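Hey L., structure's done. Input below.
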Amino acid sequence: MLKSLVVSTPRAVASLVLTLALLCGGPALAQGPDAKVRVTVIHATKDGTSVAPDLGDLAKYLVKSFAPYTAFKTLDRQQVTLAAGASSKLALPNGSELIYRNDGRANGFVALHLEVGGLKTTVNVKDGGTFFQAGRSYEGGMIVLAFAVDP
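Output:
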């Protein structure tokens, strides 16, 4: 019966293809609204115990998450609004380049794809959420990248 239905009408073919695409496809990311992404480049060292005042709410997370580093200084900031599929670049002080891309939205999360120093990953960030990527050596310490994604 399915064979005769598919052969008999173009509308049936279109309906079948659409139904199969909906049933077989994975969770699609919506193109949705743009994502505002703020990247803060931080130098973490073991020299002293100071945290730059401009790091604000990030300070408590930096101190807790990146022990034994005890000093945190802002090196750079970038804020961009990315449409789904759009990307931005940021030159890092250690000579590497960060590329990040808005891969879309699903269920209140933004899929943010990162490429830096050979690392390629995608992080699903809750709208309004913040996450860190760290480990790049720089002048006796390391670079910590703080990403904040606003709806």
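Strands lie at 35-45, 71-82, 87-91, 97-106, 109-116, 119-126, 130-138, 141-150. The two ends are 48 Å apart (CA to CA).

-- N.
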